[in-house]
Amino acid sequence: MNKYMNKVFALGMVVGALTLGSCSSDYLDTDPTGSLNASGALQNTDEAMKSLNGIAKCMTTQQSYFGQGFCGENAIYRLYESMPSQNWNYNVYAAGWSPLHNQEFHMNTNSVYDSYAWYYYYQLVGQANTIIAGIDNAEGSEADRQFIKAAALTFRAYSFEKLVRYYCYRWQDSNNGASRGIVLRLDETTGDHNVATLAETYAQIYKDCQDAIALFNESGVDRPSGKVWIPNVNVAHAVYARAALNRQDYATALAEAKAARQGYPLMSNEDYMAGFCRPTSEWIMGSFGDATENTWYWSYGTQDACNGYYAAATQCGAGSIGHELISRIPNDDVRKQNFITEDKLGIDITKPGTLDGTYGYIGLTSDLLGIADKDAYMAAYEFVNSRQISGLPPVYESEIYHIDGQLKFWVLDLPGVSYLPFIRSSEMYLIEAEANYFLGDIPAAQASLVELNTATNRTPGYTCTLTGEDLFNEIKDYREVELWGEGFAWSDYKRWNIPVVRHSFAQGGNAHAAVAITVAADSGNKWTWEVPLAETEYNEAFKNADATGATMK
Question: What whole-number distance in Å separates Cα of residue 5 and Cα of residue 534?
Answer without folding.
Answer: 6
